[in-house]
Automatic annotation (TrEMBL):
Residues 6-76 form the BTB domain. It comes from the Eukaryota. Pathway: Protein modification; protein ubiquitination. InterPro entries: Beta_prop_At2g24240, BTB/POZ_dom, Quino_amine_DH_bsu, SKP1/BTB/POZ_sf, T1-type_BTB, WD40/YVTN_repeat-like_dom_sf. This is BTB domain-containing protein. Pfam families: Beta_prop_At2g24240, BTB_2.
Length: 441
């Protein structure tokens, strides 16, 4: 490839372009240009053949240079959204994303954009999509944005409060919602991220009867299982499991007396141990309950609670938790952003608090938001009031902080698609943080 006999000529919107088969092959088999090649990557064309494409020539020039060099340069006369749409037509959107975004690194993140939502009231949750988009929950509605941050038709749950949202894939969003008394509504629904249509409703079956229930925290496993905390009207308290492909309930882990599963704040699937972390935290409950469930044996293999612990502020106010399998520990955070660690090798151990991570020094803002935790590519993230802190290294030392000047406290954040999304409590504003690409020499 790349010799004179492999030259290819295009007429795009009346403008002539010449390139080589080698350059076009960089687009990949699944692209528009992949159809020009045989299974053996031999170019399919007659001698001196010219391919006509009735598309924008300015965008074509940018994308052709991207295939040649791997670098993305967008001239001032080319609108970015138009370029993205042309890239989707040619099947090059992933090439554009790769060139525009560098490998995710919390210490190199830059504020790319802020988006103001349209829904009234404070936002309650944000989730990053696998393709760089996101969805934002406001009360009973979920607003979906694609990678270009264009809003799709909203997902409307008819005035039922949304508890959690999760991306099954780029085309489908799962929503958990409160039961509405007298209607039997609530539970979980699978929606199209493009049209907003309800595709499937997930049922809880108890004693061979379909029950009305409130679904809470969500999680997913690589083998296409959906986990959700469930709270019914009688004995349906616990964590349900559904098959992602069929939508059928396949298991249910019932809540044992004296513990809390059905009102969990967070679920996290652990690939290494094939267990599910379930955390029910203050202030939803007066006490905090964190456990690991093994669905293969229907046992709780590890647990921790602050019941009986000294009544100190630090012990009583665990606000979020996340399992760190490589460290054999669960990381927790309190309202002063002290990080604490609980050993996963022993049940019922105490929290080892790390004061070196404290940022607030006992000072709370006028409108505080509870801190949230996330773990991504070996970096630990913690939100507190109007900023997000990044911790790295074996001792989880503070290495960076993300903050902007307006929007109020951060009520939720999420990482995915090489972006970090932060949702603020005021004006429904959410920020998009990106890692700049590495310059192409």
């Amino acid at each position: 490839m790349g010799i004179q006999n492999d030259m290819v000529k295009f007429n795009v919107g009346g403008r002539i372009f010449q390139t080589t088969a080698t350059t076009l092959a960089n687009a990949g088999r699944d692209s528009f240009f992949g159809a020009l090649f045989s299974d053996n990557w031999d170019l399919r064309q007659q001698q001196n053949q010219e391919f006509f494409i009735d598309r924008n020539p300015d965008c074509f020039a940018v994308l052709l240079d991207l295939l040649r060099t791997g670098d993305l340069y967008i001239p001032s006369n080319v609108p970015e959204r138009l370029l993205y749409k042309e890239a989707m037509f040619y099947g090059l959107i992933n090439h554009v994303r790769t060139a525009k975004l560098g490998p995710f690194d919390g210490n190199r993140l830059k504020l790319s954009k802020s988006v103001t939502g349209r829904a009234p009231g404070d936002g309650t949750g944000i989730r990053a999509g696998p393709d760089g988009g996101c969805c934002v929950a406001h009360g009973s509605m979920v607003h979906v944005f694609d990678w270009m941050l264009e809003e799709h038709p909203p997902l409307n749950l008819d005035y039922q409060r949304v508890n959690d949202i999760g991306w099954v894939n780029a085309e489908n969003v799962l929503i958990s919602a409160c039961e509405r008394l007298g209607r039997g509504d609530g539970g979980m629904g699978l929606f199209s991220s493009y049209t907003g249509d309800l595709r499937y409703k997930f049922n809880v079956v108890h004693d061979n009867q379909i029950k009305s229930y409130t679904a809470g925290a969500l999680s997913f496993s690589p083998d296409c299982k959906i986990f959700a905390s469930c709270k019914g009207r009688s004995n349906e308290y616990g964590v349900g499991v559904w098959d992602q492909l069929t939508g059928k309930q396949i298991d249910f882990f019932y809540e044992s007396p004296g513990w809390s599963l059905g009102e969990a704040d967070k679920l996290q699937w652990l690939n290494g141990t094939n267990c599910l972390l379930v955390a029910t935290l203050f202030p939803r409950k007066d006490n905090c309950y964190i456990s690991l469930l093994d669905f293969r044996q229907k046992t709780m293999v590890w647990s921790w609670s602050d019941i009986g612990a000294p009544l100190t502020v630090d012990e009583k106010r665990v606000r979020d938790a996340i399992a760190m399998e490589e460290c054999n520990s669960v990381c927790v955070v309190n309202e002063y952003e002290d990080l604490g660690f609980i050993d996963l090798r022993f049940s019922g151990g105490s929290v080892r608090w790390s004061s070196r991570s404290r940022l607030m020094k006992g000072k709370m803002s006028d409108e505080p938001c509870y801190p949230k935790l996330a773990l991504h590519n070996g970096q630990l993230f913690s939100s507190m009031n109007d900023c997000i802190s990044v911790f790295c290294g074996p001792d989880w030392v503070l290495t960076s902080r993300l903050r902007r000047s307006y929007g109020g406290s951060i009520c939720d954040f999420s990482i995915g698609g090489d972006r970090l999304f932060a949702l603020h409590s005021e004006d429904n504003v959410f920020d998009i943080w990106e890692t700049p690409p590495t310059p192409v020499i």
